[in-house]
Fold this sequence. Notes:
Layout: H1 2-25, H2 29-46, H3 50-76, H4 80-103, H5 109-120, H6 126-135, H7 140-165, H8 176-203, H9 209-236, H10 246-269, H11 275-286, H12 293-299, H13 305-328
Helix pairs in contact: 1-2, 2-6, 2-9, 3-8, 3-9, 4-5, 4-7, 4-10, 5-7, 5-10, 5-12, 5-13, 6-9, 6-13, 7-8, 7-11, 10-11, 10-13, 11-13
Organism: Saccharolobus islandicus (strain Y.N.15.51 / Yellowstone #2) (Sulfolobus islandicus)
Transmembrane segments: 7-23, 29-48, 55-73, 85-103, 115-135, 141-164, 184-203, 209-228, 249-270, 276-299, 306-328
Protein name: Auxin Efflux Carrier
Amino acid sequence: MKDIIDFYSQLVIILFFYHIIFIELFAFWTLSQGLFLVLSAILGYFLHNRLSVRIVSFVNNWINLPLIFLVTYLQRGFEVSDAKIFLTSVIYNFLMFAIVLYLTREIEPFSRGSVLINSIFMNTINLPFSILLAFRGNYEISATVAVAMATLRLPIVMIIFTYLNKGISVIHNTTNNSIIRTNLSRYLPVITFLIGGSLHYVVGSVINVDIVNTINLILILIVLYEFGYQIRRVIGEMRIKDVTSKPYMIIYISRILISPILIFLILISLGITSKIIIEQVMVTAIMAPAITNVVWARVYGFGTEIIVKSTLILTPISTIIAIIFLILY
């Protein structure tokens, strides 16, 4: 009962703040979007309990993220550039896998799997979408990258698992049902991407760009609320003294240096020179590891501590680098 009362009290406070910002800053729409996004993360950091965590996690996994892709591609449809972005993502994932596999050759499998996962799989939705929405008002190319990465994530993780464990299962405290749920929730955005893009050519653009952007802003606000309390959780688990060891340094170098350079070279080699495409793909490439990587590590029996700590350290750093990139590019 206490959780329920706390949840509704927090909901009233959150809605009150959103109402104030919406009314006062509606005339300055770009500014208000940025403030909405920051406020959601702050509220998630300070205002949450067990019930709100469960509700928001469920809504984000099973409703919000799939709906973002559905409405975006229902309005947009498929484009020729999407095929090149998918190809870019495939090349990127396998080259990153090969590079990081070599860099981690002296690390034991339990930690090596975590380093591989966090070095390869960046945050492709909440942070890049939010940054691009605030600074460019559009993230449709980044959404295509997110779909491609989501499609490739499961097979790449399975390759990592099989290679490091030589086919021997090391999954701990995990049921078949939890694996199925995790995989299904990861693939829902891919499914709704295909449905939305296909329906675009059947029913046409039934919603305009402004409505799509407004819907997506509301959905991303909820995503960022979860991101805020995830940051609060990982801060409580962090010990600074361990985060300069070799596994962490490989993740830092992979995400901040190797990832953007590699993906830029792939884009250029495929003949992609559009400023809009390059900046949106590059922002995604710069991003820190996804917080949801901890779920994949847990499901496939790798350590979660490295993932949690390195994600916490890289998230503010990569956010600042991405913003500077957008300002200067």
